[in-house]
């Protein structure tokens, strides 16, 4: 696929440029000079370049799937507890959460994701297990799972996450005990997957909510809405710049992955660990920018 090769070419100068997520010690140990990208289309074609089959820590990308699971299980009730506006603030900000009385701005900043994980755990009795089931089924890989070393690393160093969860609890916006929610949350973020596996697992968002076996998971309206929240809130406090350059519903993670949905066409997933100033993978952003420039896989 020509646009994929051009994306890889455009990203090359950015690979290794930037910082690793040092606040999670085991992510700081990853080789930053890696790059992989996959484009999976709704009609079953998969194109890959570079380190497309190397597993990495999906981190915040997991938040798309936990939100989808909650919405699929009980509809729109989660929006009573979480808003859907861009935050314009760092993804782990305590100030905004306190100022807004414990109601997170959106489900993709850490506070919002903790509420979603809390709800999923209350609904299923095992938030991370429910997530792993979905990812295994849709990626076709039974060995997909959470990396306990990464989870422990974040559990021990994630003081802000603990603070956010306690603040949410103080406002009555958690159902489960704080330590249970945190354990599930770090485990879901520590999910280890390749670009290929992630792209396949996310295809339901490009297929109006339909899973790989043809069964309905989300309604078309729910899938549209999750894509909309990804476009406005999925790439930290630079979602505007990201939309300007890439123009696709996307979710990035501090492990260096970015997932982008092209409704009715497919999914692109790119990974390169070094993060630019926006907190998203620098090479990943350059690759997606080029991909939407040199292909007609766009929504605009
Ligand atoms: N587990 C990470 C955290 O809570 C996820 C952040 C991210 O990928 O944006 O800080």
From TrEMBL:
Enzyme Commission code: 3.5.1.2
One record GO biological process: L-glutamine catabolic process
Binding residues annotated for substrate, in chain numbering: 60, 110, 154, 185, 236, 254
Species of origin: Nocardioides islandensis
UniProt keyword Cell wall biogenesis/degradation present: no
HAMAP family: Glutaminase
Domain of life, per lineage: Bacteria
InterPro entries for this protein: Beta-lactam/transpept-like, Glutaminase
One Pfam family cited in the UniProt record for this chain: Glutaminase
Family: Belongs to the glutaminase family.
This protein's name: Glutaminase
Enzymatic reactions: L-glutamine + H2O = L-glutamate + NH4(+)
């Amino acid at each position: 696929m020509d646009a994929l090769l051009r994306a890889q070419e455009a990203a090359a100068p950015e690979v290794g440029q930037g910082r690793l997520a040092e606040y999670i010690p085991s992510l700081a140990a990853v080789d930053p000079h890696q790059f992989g990208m996959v484009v999976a289309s709704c009609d079953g074609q998969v194109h890959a370049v570079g380190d497309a089959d190397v597993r990495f820590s999906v981190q915040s990308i997991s938040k798309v799937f936990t939100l989808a699971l909650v919405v699929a299980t009980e509809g729109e009730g989660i929006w009573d507890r979480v808003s859907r506006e861009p935050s314009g603030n760092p993804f782990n900000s305590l100030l905004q959460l306190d100022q807004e009385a414990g109601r997170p701005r959106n489900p993709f900043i850490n506070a919002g994701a903790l509420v979603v994980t809390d709800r999923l755990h209350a609904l299923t009795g095992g938030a991370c297990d429910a997530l792993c089931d979905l990812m295994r089924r849709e990626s076709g890989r039974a060995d997909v799972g959470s990396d306990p070393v990464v989870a422990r690393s974040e559990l021990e160093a994630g003081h802000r996450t603990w603070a956010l969860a306690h603040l949410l609890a103080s406002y009555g916006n958690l159902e489960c005990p704080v330590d249970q929610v945190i354990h599930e949350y770090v485990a879901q973020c520590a999910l280890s997957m390749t670009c290929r596996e992630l792209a396949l697992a996310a295809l339901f968002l490009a297929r109006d909510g339909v899973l790989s076996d043809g069964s309905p998971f989300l309604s078309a309206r729910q899938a549209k809405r999750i894509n909309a929240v990804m476009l406005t809130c999925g790439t930290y406090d630079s979602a505007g710049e990201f939309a300007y350059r890439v123009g696709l519903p996307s979710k990035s993670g501090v492990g260096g992955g970015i997932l982008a949905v092209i409704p009715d066409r497919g999914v692109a997933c790119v990974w390169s660990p070094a993060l630019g100033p926006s907190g998203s993978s620098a090479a990943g952003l350059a690759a997606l920018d080029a991909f939407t420039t040199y292909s007609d896989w766009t929504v605009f």
